[in-house]
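Blinded run. Sample ID left blank on purpose so nobody reads anything into the name before looking at the predicted structure. Input follows.
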Amino acid sequence: MIAGLIYDPILGRLRKKDPAAAQTPPTQAEVLAALKYYDEDTTNPATAPVASGSFSIAQGDGATSTVNYSTVSGGLTNSATGVGSSIGGGQLNTSAGLNSRISGGLSNTISSGGTHATICGGNANGASGVASVVLGGQENDSDGDFSTSRGHYAQANEDGGNATSFDRQHNQSGSAQNQKLTRSIEVTDDTPTDITLPITTADKTFACLIRVSGRQTGGTAGTVGDSFYDEFKILVKDIGGVNSKVGSYTEDTIAEDNSNWVRTIAVTASGVIITFTGEVDQTITVLAEMDRGETA
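Blinded prediction complete.
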């Protein structure tokens, strides 16, 4: 506390302390007045906000903060129902994930599974994956853990997926979009090791460009710093939940230091599998990046 000043909940700011006045805590009515929920349309009076969780704050018409440490800063009929969740404003937004955040917008929803999830704004977006993000737009979904979506009808359904869509033709979630995935492994011997790039959405076609790169980072054999870079192009279709390759794939080795390192590709029920085989006593980090166009 700054000497000589106190916080006035009615004014919403610091003011000079009146030494002659008794210092009493504000009443509930004074606190509600300070929150300033109101509606200038007198024919539809505002609904009082409800902050029922411990250390929670609710501001705005019809706002509810029903669990501990939750916050609604303003807007219309916003609801923060996840512990530590917050909503900045907008209308009809619901933030139910632990420590989740909706900045604003209309009818956006973070489900209870969306722990640490964020929706930056927009309309009718959803986030249900852990630490998932919707950057904005309309009717996008980030369902995979650590996934990101943006645009119109983008669906980031894979863990770590990064989906972008601008589908004004089909108006169907994920029907025409681009999605990016990354996965990595570390190998220390000559045991074949798989990297799975998942394809879990039924009844779609996936045009995939896959970049695979690696670097030796340690070991008693080989040369630290040796590297490689391959590109695979493959078309995958899913019918009724069954993945299959269309035609043949192409593989292009852009550059490599060690020709004994082997990379192969296959399509399985799980998705596209990159198998890497290194050498004994060599520690190698391998990265696979999938950039795919999806149509349904």
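Unblinding after everyone has recorded impressions. Residues 142 and 156 are 5 Å apart (CA to CA).
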